[in-house]
Amino acid sequence: MKIASVIVDVPAKQTDKTFDYLIPDKWKDVIMPGMRVSVPFGSRQIQGFVTEMKSSSDFKKLKEITEPMDLTPVLTKELLMLGDWLTEHALCYKISAYQAMLPAALKAKYQKKLRITDGTVIGDLPKNLQPFFAERDFILWEEIVKKGLVPEFQKEVAKGTVEVIYEVKEKVKKKLVKHIYPLLSPETLAIEKEKLPPQASKQKEAIDYFIKNSEPIELRRFTAELGISSGTVKGLINKRILGEKMIEVYRNPYENRTFVKTEPLPLTEDQKKAIEPILSSIGNNEHEVFLLYGVTGSGKTEIYLQSIQKVIEEGKEAIVLVPEISLTPQMVTRFKGRFGDQVAVLHSGLSQGEKYDEWRKIQRKEVKVAVGARSAIFAPFENIGIIIIDEEHETSYKQEETPRYHARDVAIQRAKYYGCPVVLGSATPSLESFARAKKGVFHLLTLSNRMNNQALPTVEIVDMREELRAGNRSMFSRTLLEKLKDRLEKKEQTVLFLNKRGHSSFVMCRSCGYVLNCPHCDISLTYHRFNEQMKCHYCGYEQHVPVFCPECQSDHIRYFGTGTQKVEEELAKILPEARVIRMDVDTTSKKGAHERLLADFQEGKADILLGTQMIAKGLDFPNITLVGVLSADTMLHLPDFRSSEKTFQLLTQVSGRAGRHELEGEVVIQTYSPEHYSVELAGEQDYDRFYQKEMMIRKIHKYPPFYYISLVTVSHEQLMKVVSVTEKISTFLQSRLSNESIVLGPVASPIPRINNRYRYQCLIKYKREPELGKALKAVLDRYQQEIVSDGLQISIDLNPYILM
Ligand code: ADP
Ligand code: ZN
Ligand code: ZN
């Protein structure tokens, strides 16, 4: 095998195929599929992924691979194949598909180093490699390349004695901690011990430790555990019995937390019925997709845990996806509590370095379970026994940038390969999934009761227009205020939820009605109180709040809408004695802030937790007996066919926060559209009726799950150009697709301009259109030149979740 097929890192149509490279003799047996390599391309040196090895090529005069970038493959055989699938199903270039599967640290500029793994001593290495680590903890990659020792080190890496670490320049700092370790073998240590004078009992104790343990140990821990001074250690180092070195420790974001070990709970009859088919799918190696439909608190997570346990017992691995915002400490605790060190956690709160460390644990098979947000679906396990997606209806499982994949689809694809089950869990399944379950494509498992048959909280819907008519101009209805006071007296806790999306505070002139818009985008600016700035959430533009109206010069310029800060101020006025914790983008931007605020609330340091979407999920505190939703309908009026579904899901989700334990819960939903079915049925917590009603509407309007949709968005600085290109695309697609399909466009996008670029779109609705992928690729090819040279942008989303 002297030739490697390589996908090069040039995301363009012409380079979206493999290029053959010769493997120079010195890299023979080193280079393997799934490794990244550095190759000459044109006049440049670029990175690429080896996808295949072969003995001959159709091309003559092949260039040579310059050098490997990895010593072990970063992509498994299965992930390489998954890349092919992703390319087809997300219409992306191969290179983008592969890049998406790797942690960010591997994409950044980095310095590659080798070090001895924990638990290995220099003496374990072949003689000729030992000198490399004699005085140092790391050796640079370039050095072993220059000395021609890559194959030898690769053998060590395969054995696990040496590992490659990537030190990302500037971005990731490795965490180094002083460790001590024995320089001598246990036998020689024993001899050295005998030589010590009788009064050196502490030094003897220290040596005894290393006669039994040869791994390096953190100096601080060593002195604390053995109760000896660092002077004692120093003495042994001076005698050249012990050595000291700085060792990189895995950054462990959960370092200071201990997880109480939990045992599997005896399952209820409902749970037994639900878990049984999952366990048999695991046992029989049969791929099946389960939809686990059960209200919050019905015991879904316990089913996940026990299914995973079975998977681990079978020597296999599990991937668990949770939405980013519900990847709360509580959720992590439940998995770590059950499976301890066998769990790696991946989420955006981690630094690049921490994420890379967690990923590496998966790659090296040091863990059995990967819990994480969307991108954890690419965890490089090679023996997957189950994939679980909690809150499967969450739209954050869809990636909104290239490659535009949905984690659910990727999960099913991977599970088919491994012959294992996918479990989708939700109290409010997406219409797509529930429809599939009803048709028998997915296997429906239902948990109809809450644990201990706790009653669902009672929900009261308050019509805010009535409040206004009764002279109440406050953002709190009379009912909600009364209940808030009641909870304060009883020392019970309240969660106040503000639906911010689509309803951020904006500035308007009360005299002339002028609204402050972004000068680059057709959208109003959002008011940020803490620095008195107006900000555009699309392009980042910022300006000060004007004193006078730019239109009529009046000074009656005010901000409208209810941001969390404004609610907090109002609370301080009407309930000055209440202690409030506010959780929003501003108060949680610092690392660990989210966790700390929740812990404070749990410890009873506040009466009211006020927040946005991020508090809608995962909270499970016994003392919460009241949930207030300040404005239920802010999402209803967005130009999105899923807005009713999202509203229903969110309201149901929030209501589930109350009364999860002994104390009964109450929910107050304030709204300007009490008659809307999504609000009304969320109040009754009636998913089944909501499903029927919404399915009817989707059918009439030809939306998913009855039709598939794809969205083409065109943007450019010149309006005329955008209109004409979108026009041509629409006509072209119309001519290529069957009569049953509907092409809607060209029309201006709901946000017609972002960052000075005009935006037009074309929406395609279809039932079966095998040629669509080809037609859309043809569109991209046709405009390739203008995309490269003229700043034209065409984005294609085969299953859009954002229609703006
Ligand atoms: P969900 O994931 O559906 O919200 P959970 O699995 O979190 O539900 O269960 C809700 C509560 O009930 C949790 O506190 C959990 O520990 C408890 N629970 C779950 N299953 C059992 C069981 N079989 N026996 C006793 N308690 C259980
Ligand atoms: Zn803007
Ligand atoms: Zn004005």
Automatic annotation (TrEMBL):
Reactions the enzyme catalyzes: ATP + H2O = ADP + phosphate + H(+); Couples ATP hydrolysis with the unwinding of duplex DNA by translocating in the 3'-5' direction
Essential cofactor(s): Zn(2+)
Family annotation (CDD domains): DEXHc_priA, SF2_C_priA
UniProt xrefs under NCBIfam families: priA, PRK05580.1-3
Family named by the database record: Belongs to the helicase family. PriA subfamily.
GO biological process: DNA recombination; DNA replication initiation; DNA replication, synthesis of primer; double-strand break repair
Organism: Bacillus methanolicus (strain MGA3 / ATCC 53907)
Domain of life of the native organism: Bacteria
Molecular function, one GO term: DNA binding
UniProt cross-references to PANTHER family, sorted A to Z: PRIMOSOMAL PROTEIN N (PTHR30580:SF0)
Protein name: Replication restart protein PriA
Subunit structure: Component of the replication restart primosome.
Transmembrane segments: none
Function: Initiates the restart of stalled replication forks, which reloads the replicative helicase on sites other than the origin of replication. Recognizes and binds to abandoned replication forks and remodels them to uncover a helicase loading site. Promotes assembly of the primosome at these replication forks.
InterPro entries: DEAD/DEAH_box_helicase_dom, Helicase_ATP-bd, Helicase_C-like, P-loop_NTPase, PriA, PriA_3primeBD, PriA_3primeBD_sf, PriA_C
Limits of the Helicase ATP-binding domain: 281-447
E.C. number(s) listed in UniProt: 5.6.2.4
Annotated cofactor note: Binds 2 zinc ions per subunit.
Binding-site residues for Zn(2+) 1, renumbered to this chain: 509, 512, 549, 552
Binding site for Zn(2+) 2: 518, 521, 536, 539
Helicase C-terminal domain sequence ranges: 544-712
Keyword tags: ATP-binding, DNA replication, DNA-binding, Helicase, Hydrolase, Isomerase, Metal-binding, Nucleotide-binding, Primosome, Zinc
Any single GO CC term annotated in Swiss-Prot or TrEMBL for this entry: primosome complex
Gene3D superfamilies documented for this protein: P-loop containing nucleotide triphosphate hydrolases (3.40.50.300), PriA, 3(prime) DNA-binding domain (3.40.1440.60)
